[in-house]
User: Fold these one by one.
Assistant:
Number 1:
Amino acid sequence: MSAAGRPPREGLRLGIILRLSLRNVLRYARRSTLTASAMVLGLGLLIFSRTLADGAHESWIDQGVQLGMGHVALQAPDYQQNRSLAYRLTASRLATAMGALDDPQIEPSVAMVAPRIAVSGLASSAGSALPVQILGVDPDLEPAFSLLDDKLVEGRYLQRGDRLSAYVGIGLVERLGIHLGSRFVLTAQDADGEIQGQLVRVAGIFRTGVPDLDEGIIHLTLSTAQRWLNAPGAVTTVAVLLRSSRETPPVIRSLERILPANEVEVLSWREVSPELDAAVKIDDLGDWVFHSITLAIIALAILNAILMAVMNRKREFGVLQALGLTGGETGVVVLLEGVMLSLLSGGLGILLGLGVTWFFWRDGLDMSFLMDEELTFSGTLFDPVMVPEFRLATILVSLALIITIGVLASLYPARQATRIDVAEAMKFDR
C-alpha cells in the first residue's frame, strides 16, 4: 500500500477499536455498572468531603482573622519579629498604607480596614496581676471587623469619646477579681521605652470560649492608647479584612507593588497567625490521607473487575486477534473500556456529589450533637455547623483524580490482554 493510503487505514482501525470498546462496555452491562458504581460513589464521597472541608477551613480562617489581624496586615518592617513600639507606622506611613488600600485593583476585594496599636503589658488589680495584650482600636470601625463586640455578656462595647474605658474578657475579670465598673491599672512600655501606667475602668465584658482571648485581650480606644503610649497618630498594624481568604495572594502582590518595602511590610494571615495556618494544613493533610485510602480501595475494585473480565474473555480476544487485531490493539480495547467507564463515572459522580451535598447540606452540616461543650481550633472558636463551599478547582481536581485512578487501574489488565496466545485462546472453553 502507498504512503498516501496508510492514514485512512490507520483511522479505520482506530474507529473499529473505539467501537469495540464501546460495544463491550454496553454489552457487559452488569460488569460495567458495578465498576462504574464504585467510581461514582467514590467521586461523590470525595466531592462531598472536600466541599465540607473547604467550607470548614474558610469558616475557621474567617473567625481566626476576625479575632486576629485580618487576612492582610500592614506593619512597619520588623515589627512582626520584635513586637515593639519602636517599630510602628508613623502618621505619614499610616497615610501611605491607607492610600494604597484605595487602589482600584485592591479596593473591591477589601471588606473592612481597622488601624490598631498593640502592646504587651500587665493588668493589675488589688488582688492580682496578669500579662495581657492591649489593643488600641477605633470604636467606630472595630465592631464591623472583630467578633469580640458580638461576644458581649455584660456592659457595652467601647464608644467614641471613651477616655478611660476598657473592654475585657470574662477570664481576666475572674482572675483579677474585678467586675463591671471596676478600676484597674495597665502598665506597658511606651514608644520612648519608658514604663507607663494607665488607670482604666471596665466598660464591658466579653466571653469567646477561648481561654487565651478571655484572659489575655483588652481593648482601649485608639486615641487613649496613642496618648498613653506617647505615639500620637501612630499604629502598629493596619488590619485588612477581605471578602474571601482566596483573594489574599493577589491583594498582597498588588500592595507589595504599590507600597515602599522599606516603609510598610505586607503580611498575610498565614504569616501573622502561623498557628492557624499550621492547623488548617494539618487538617487538610488528614483529609487527603482519608481520601487516598478511599481512592486506593476504588482502584483495587476497578482493577479486580477489569482483570477478571479479561480472564473471562480470552476466547473473545483470541477471535479478535485471529481476525486481524494485534496484541497491542487488543490491549488498547481494554484500556479504552476503562477510560470510557472513568469518563462516564466521573460525570455521574460529580452530579451525585454536588446534588446530594447541595440538596441535604447546603445550609450546613450541624455537628453540635457530637460536642458537649464549646470547642476551640487553634485559638479560635470552632463553628459546629459546617457549610460546604463549592469550588471549581476542587471539583476539577476530584474529577481528574478519579479518571486517573480508573485509567491506571486499567493498565495492568490491558497489558495482560496483549499477552493472550491466540492458539490457546481458541481452545478456551467458556
Note: The first strand starts at residue 72 and ends at 75.
Number 2:
Amino acid sequence: MTQIIVAGVVAFVVSIFLTPVLILYFRRRGFGQEIRIEGPKSHLSKSGTPTMGGLAIVVAVWLAYVAAGLVGQFTVGGGGFTASGLLVLGLATGLAVVGTVDDGLKVFKRHNKGLGIVSKTVGQVAAALAFAVLVLGFRNSDGLTPASTSLSYIRDFVAVTFPVVVFLIFIVALVFVWSNAVNFTDGLDGLAAGSVAMVMGTYVIFSFWQFRYSCFSSNTEVDLSGCYQVRDPLDIAVLCSAALGACLGFLWWNAAPAKIFMGDTGSMFLGGLVAGVSVVSHTELLMVVVGALFIIEFVSVVIQVVAFRTTGRRPFRMTPIHHHFENGGWKETTVTIRFWLISAISCGLSIALFYGDWLANSTG
C-alpha cells in the first residue's frame, strides 16, 4: 500500500508543478494549438493555447513509478520493478513518441494536421506489436507471463485461447482502438484527463484486490478460493496510482478554461496505459465497461465515417460525439461534466461487476 500512495503523491506533485513550467516555456516558444476551422465556433478562442502538456503526465508517471519502485526495495512485503509495469510503460511511452511527433508537426507547420493517418497508424502498430510480442515472455517463478493468450473478462476464458498469431493481431487491434479512443475524447477542456483519472483509480482498486487475493499469496489467513492468476498485480496498482496522480495534477491546469492541452503526446500515452493495463491485469473485456466513455467516442467517429461514405449523410452534427452536443447548444463545461458522470457511472458499474465476480467465486 505504501508504494501505491507514494506513486500517486509523487505523480501529482510532479504534474501540478511541472505543467505551469511547460505553459510558460511553450508560450515563449509559441507552441500553440491550432484549432479546426470546421469545429465548434466557441473553440476558436482557444487558438494559441500551449499544447504538448502531456509531457508533464509522461514525466510524472515515470518519476512516480521509479520512486515507488525504489521505496518497494525497502518495504516489507513490497515489490520492485516488474516486467508487467515496465512493458505497459514502454507501450505508453512508444505511443507518446508518436503523439509528440504529431504535435510537433502541428506546432511547426502551424496547422491542425500533423502526421498523416498512414504514418500515425504505422507508429501505433509498431509500438503495439512490440508490446504484444514481449508481453508473452518474462515468465516468473510461478510460471506466469504478463499476458495470457486467453481472452479475459475478470478472469481468463480458458475455452477462448488464441493462437499466438491471432493473439498478436488482437493486441495490435486493442491498442489501436484504445489509443485512438482516448485521443478522440481529448477534445474538451479536462474531459480526457478527468475520465482517465477515474479509470486509473478504478484499476488501482482492481489491481490491489488481485494482489491481496493472488493465487500465489504466502498469506495463509487469506481465502484464496476466488484468487487471481495475474503476474504483477501490485506493480500494476502502483502504475495506475501514478497515472491517477499525474492526471489530477494536470487537470488542475487543463480544466476549463484550459491553460494548456495535453495534445496527442498525452492522449496517446494515456491510451497506451489503458490498453496495456487491461492486458496485463487480464481484464480486456471488463475495460470496455470501465472505459465505456472512450468506446462511445470512438464508435461515434466510426459510425459517422461509415455512414457518410455509404449514404452521404452524417448522423451526428460533428464527431467525436462531444462536439455533436456542443453544436446542439450545450456549453462545453456542461458536456464535460455530463460525460464525466458517464465515466463515473461506468467505473462504479465495473467495480460492482468485479466484486460480484469475486463473491461468486469465493467461499470466504
Note: Residues 332-361 form the longest helix (30 residues).
Number 3:
Amino acid sequence: MTFAINGKFTSQPITGVQRVAYELTRAMQMRATPGAEMEVYVPQDAMEPGTFLKQLRRFPWLRGTLWEQITLPIAARRTTLLNFCNTNPLFKRGQLVMVHDMAVYDMPQGFSKKFRLWYRLLFSMLPKMEPTILTVSEFSKARICHHLKVDASRVVVVPLGADHLDRVQSSPAVVQRLGLVKDGYCVIVGSLDPRKNLQAVLDAVERLAHLGDIKFVVVGGRNPRIFNSDKTAAPAESKQVVWAGFVSDGELKALYENAGCLIFPSLYEGFGLPPLEAMYCGCPVIASSLTSIPEACGNAAMYCDAHSPQDIAEKITLMMTDSEARQRYRSKGIAHAREYRWERSAERMLAILYGETSEPLAELAPSASAG
C-alpha cells in the first residue's frame, strides 16, 4: 500500500491546524529512508514553509477547495491519502482524515454560515466513507463519536508536539518595538474567533488598575471568511492593551520568552497548542479549564474560570505579583512541554499506517496528559 499526503495546507497561512500538518509531515519524512519519503501532493500556489518539505509533487490545475475536491482525488487515485487539516476529497476511496474538533457543531455561532455548512457537509460524509479518523485529544475523540455516531474504535488520538520551536530563532527586537519589558506584560494569542474569548480578558483588564504598569499584548487577527465577525471582540481603548497583530514565529517566541505569562481563556479547543508552545519557551500559563485544555496542560498551568472576568483578573494578579508562583509555573511548564515531541507523533502515525504495532487501533491514543 502506498500513501500520499494532502498538501493543500502548503498554500495556506500557518495557524494551529496547518502547523500540525506541516510538523507531522516533516517528522514522518525525517524517519524515512532518504529518497523514500512519503510524497506530498501540493497545489501550484504552495508557499513556505511547505515548499521545504521533501518529495513534493505539484498538480497545477485549480486552487483551494476546487483543487482538493477535483484535482487531488484524480492525482491520488492509486494511493491512500492522508488529510491532516479537517477536510478531504468527498469522492476518494482510501483515506485517513484528521479532524481537530467538532466546533462547527458545539459552537456554531462562532463561524460564518458558509464555512459552517461546508464543514458540516464534509463531516457528515465521514461515517459513510469509512476512513480512519484521526484526532488530537481524547476530548475531540469523544465529541467526534457523539456527533458523527461512529464507534470509538474508528477514531485514534495522535499526540502533538511543541519542539518545532527548537528550529525557530528568537527575534527579541519585537519586545523593544512594542515598548515592553521582561516580565512586565502578558501575552494573549489567538485569532479574534469568539471561541478564543478575548473579550473576557479585555473585561478583566478593566479590573486591573492596580497593575497599571502591566501590558497585555494581543497577538493574532480576524478572518471573516471563517469566523462570524459580528461576534468578535472590538479593540479596547485601554492603554494597557497592545494590539500586535500577526507576528513571525521568531517574534512570537521572543514574546513568550520575555512575558510574565500567557493568558489562554479559550472556551473551546480541540487541543490547544499555544499553551504548550508558551511553556516550551519558559512562559507561565493561565489557561481555561474547559474542553481539551486541561488534557493538554496537565498540572503545569494555573487554571481560571473562562466565563468570569473577575476570576481571570484574580489569576492574573496572582501570577504577576507573586514571583515565586510565576517561577514555579515556569519550571512545571518547561518540564511538561518537553514531553510533547513531533517525533513521537510521527511514530504513532507510522504505526497506524504500516501496522507496526500489535495494539488495536483504538488503543494507540496517548494518555490524557504527559504532565
Note: The two ends are 37 Å apart (CA to CA).
